[in-house]
Design a protein that fits this description.
The protein has helices at 2-28, 30-34, 58-63, 79-96, 102-113, 116-138, 147-159, 199-204, 208-220, 225-230, 236-247, 266-286, 292-302, 323-332, 335-341, and strands spanning 69-71, 74-76, 161-163, 183-187, 193-197. Helix content is 52%, strand content 5%. The protein has 15 helices and five strands.
């Protein structure tokens, strides 16, 4: 009898371990991550009579946790941790190789930080994100974008390239980026559109969902309303979405606001809005693999670095919406995100903004 119980216990443990390993492997297996997301057609949110208390304050749910945040695919550290790690690597190289010149030091720094494993993780996420944004635009009905408008938008998405060292010459004009936590979109003077990823970010962002939201946000800048305007293009669907975002207070319309200038939040709000659509796809594709608490942790990690991380650091609320607006208003009120979190649609809030939104009254 005892032997039988031991056998059953061992068999159960083996099955549990195999299940955990399978989930872990699928989390970052390129074949799994590269497949077209089943979430391309997201199911309508289910309206529930009862819901968890955290649904009333998604910002608190995501931001009350301090320090490292973990989900089944990886972790996210506070921003400052990455830069401290990167600087330590840099100082260690200098101490160990006092006879090296700046170029040799940078070569070794890139070799250690932008190693093949970390690069492939970012590149895999970037390919997935790029394809999902293309899919999001392509599946919009003709009432949103006609065929020509879709071609114009898709062309900009496809022309945007991810620059990721080595070689170190990729960041020759900004070598400080090797140890910075920044990820950003940039259009150069000659019209080239590119994304750049700081070395510190690679050290602290191991969560698939954080990579997805971050890269989707930056890729969305290639098609944001201000970039579209700079390309001398105009889309009525963008005007409808912008009007809705303004009316909902997701873009602050202050007296000194000048659209698409330094004190305007339009570009950043749009980039968040697109990133939420793509992150919802990512979370939905894992929803059958994860338990509820794991989905919450994954959603938290998606926007973890939007939380106020240090009281001493002043947040730019001229160009960016406030953290609570970004996390609660743009991310947390998205119908598909709420569905995945087990929340109903907020009763007091107006409908979520889309390309087809209709506004009432004056802005």
């Amino acid at each position: 009898m005892l032997q039988t119980l031991r056998f059953r216990f061992l068999l159960g443990a083996v099955i549990l371990c195999i299940s955990v390993v399978q989930i872990f492997r699928k989390s970052f297996h390129p074949a799994f991550l590269e497949k077209p997301a089943e979430a391309d057609v997201l199911h309508p949110p289910v309206i529930r009579e009862y819901q968890p208390k955290y649904c009333d304050n998604v910002y608190q749910l995501f931001c009350q946790k301090r320090g490292v945040s973990q989900d089944p695919t990886g972790f996210v550290h506070p921003d400052i941790d990455g830069e401290m790690q990167a600087l330590k690597i840099y100082k260690d190289i200098i101490r160990q190789h006092r006879d090296w010149n700046v170029e040799q030091i940078d070569e070794e720094l890139v070799h250690q930080i932008f190693n093949p494993k970390r690069r492939e993780q970012v590149l895999t996420a970037a390919r997935w994100v790029k394809r999902q944004i293309e899919n999001f635009i392509s599946r919009q009905p003709r009432s949103v974008f006609n065929a020509q408008e879709k071609r114009q938008i898709l062309s900009r998405i496809r022309k945007t390239e991810l620059e990721l060292p080595p070689p170190i010459s990729l960041y020759a004009d900004e070598p400080d980026l090797f140890t910075r936590n920044e990820v950003y979109y940039q259009r150069t003077l000659d019209g080239k559109m590119r994304l750049r990823v700081g070395g510190a970010f690679l050290l602290i962002a191991k969560s698939w969902f954080n990579l997805v939201f971050t890269l989707a946000h930056e890729w969305a800048h290639s098609i944001d309303p201000c970039e579209i305007r700079s390309a001398h293009l105009s889309f009525p669907a963008y005007d409808r979405l912008t009007a809705c975002l303004l009316q909902r207070g997701l873009i602050i319309s202050h007296k000194t606001r000048s659209e698409c200038q330094e004190n305007d939040q339009l570009s950043e709000t749009f980039a968040d809005w697109i990133a939420v659509q793509i992150t919802a796809d990512a979370l939905a594709s894992f929803s059958t693999e994860f338990q509820t608490d794991q989905i919450i942790n994954a959603a938290r990690n998606s926007v973890r670095d939007l939380c106020e991380q240090d009281e001493d650091i002043e947040i730019d609320t001229l160009s960016y919406p406030a953290p609570r607006v970004r996390i609660e208003g743009i991310f947390g009120n998205n119908p598909h995100i709420r569905h995945l979190l087990g929340c109903t649609l907020p009763k007091k809030e107006p409908s979520y903004c889309t390309f087809e939104s209709k506004t009432t009254g004056s802005l």
